[in-house]
Structure formats: C-alpha cells, structure tokens
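Hey, I'm writing a tutorial for new members on how sequence and structure tokens pair up, and I'd like a real worked example in the thread rather than a made-up one. If someone can provide the structure for the chain below, I'll link this post from the tutorial.
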Amino acid sequence: MALAAGVTVTAWASAFVAIRAVGPVFGAGPLALGRLLVGGLALTVAVLPRRAWVRPTRREWLLLAVCGVSWFGVYNVALNAAEAQLDAGTAAMLVNIGPILIALSAGALLGEGFPKPLLLGAGIGFAGAVLIGFSTAGAGSRFDLTGAALCVLAAVTWTIGVLTQKPVLRRLPALQVTQIACVIGAVACLPWAGGLVDALGSAPAPAVAGMVYLGLIPTALAFGTWAYALSRMDAGRLGITTYLVPTLTVLMAWPLLGELPPALALLGGVCALTGVALSRWRSRPATASPAGPDVAHPDPAPQRGRGRTGGGPDVTVPGPHSPERRS
C-alpha cells in the first residue's frame, strides 16, 4: 500500500507540471478529453485480459457515474482551467484542501464524528487555503481569483469522487472501478471533441507527448494505484499522503518551468499541512491486557485457587518437594 500511495503522489505531482506546460496548446476541455481518452484506452487494455469483470449493481453504477463525471470529468477541466491562471505549485496547494473536505464529509456522512483535533485542523487548513488564494490574486487580479476558485471546485469534485468510489471498492476490483470511472469521465468531456481534433492538427510533438503522458501515468497508473490503496485503507488516512503533492510539484516546477510560488503561498501551504496533521492527530489509547481490563499483568506468585478439595482462593497447592510435603 505504501508503494501504491507513493506512485500516486509522485505521478499526481508531475501532472500539475505537465498541465502547466501543455495546457496552453490544447485548452482546458480538449486537454481533459485527450487525457481521459488515452487513460481510458490504457485501462481498458489492462482490464480485458483479466477476465475478472464484476457486474456492478444499479447503486454501484450510480456511484461510478457520479465519480466519473465529478472526479474524472469536472475535476480535470477545472484543474486545467485553473492552471492557466496559477503556477503549478500554488494550484497543487489549493487543490489539496481536498483531504480536509474528505475528513469533514466522512464525519457527517459516514458517522466518524467531529473530534476537536479535526475541527481545529480544518480551520487552520482553511486559513492556509485563504492565504494561498490571496497571495496569487496579485493586485486585485480577477483572473487569479478565478483560478483559485477553480482549484477549490477541483478539490470539491475530488472529495465527491472519493466518497462515491470508496463504497464501490468494497466489492468491485480497483482496476475495473478506475477504468469505468475514467471512461465515464471521457464521455462527459465529449463536447470538447472538436476542440481536441483542431488542437491535435497544429500541436507540436512535445505537447502531444505531454498529453499522452498525462493519460498514461497520472491517470491510468496513478488513479489505479490510488484505487488499489483506497480499497485497503481508510480514505482520510490515504488522503493525508497527497499533502506531499504540493511539495513535490514545487520541486519539479522550479527547474522545469522556472516557477516558485510567492512566499505567502508557501506559508499557506505550511498552514494547510499543519491543519491536516492536527486533523488526523489522535491520542494513543491505553493498551489493555488480553485477559481483560482488570488484569494488567500476569501474577508471578504461585498458582492460587482450588486445592484438592476445591478450597478458597488463598489456598496454595504445595509441590511434591515443598516443606509442607516433608513435614
């Protein structure tokens, strides 16, 4: 699971850099469609030979449809549009308020409650997101504020996707869930098919290669490893690992794109990380003995209990060489 989470985090971090690099060539909608078509094709090729396709129920089809349209469709379009206004690292920081939203939603919808560390962490994380938004807005720039709002939309659709994906993974294979959701997302983006065809006609080879990379690695591979890990661990706990994404994105974007977020955005990122750490903090429960809460340690004294006559608990059963036997 740790390896799967590591692959997901690294691939998703690279996606922010790739989108920033090739997004202007294709546009938000066409790039999302091209990425999902490549990813959906790769996932279909991976699923077919397995012959382990499980037929979803009506409820599972509904959850998969919501996951595909929201997380694979709307999320990708919103993120692509946001990165036309924001640098890759700042966009990654803003989108990654998602784990806080997942934790709060799980408390409301899954009965996990709202412990004080969770509420405190959510408040600090939200303050961090606000700092990032204002730092990238510049001197009242309307477009930067729009980019920040699109990142928040991406975070919300990510949350919806995880909450609808988790129940389906209890019965369906992770690879199949990813494949179905990706194909549904591609169908939702079909209105941009004309734009994709036009862009492919004039796009340079490196930009096309970047789109194919987005479909194969951050989509087919990373969403697949995410689903695998999510099927085996708690959604909130797994979501915390994605807070490595902004840091990795900044490290990748600095040499490749020459971008570094403003200092206030970095401070906001630190606040977001701190908030999530607090939201997941739990006091260590006291360790109970297997024998029950009233027995902390085994009694090192000689066995007490019933003698040969079934006596009371204070009767010690003498051994064969004890003084009592010799007397």
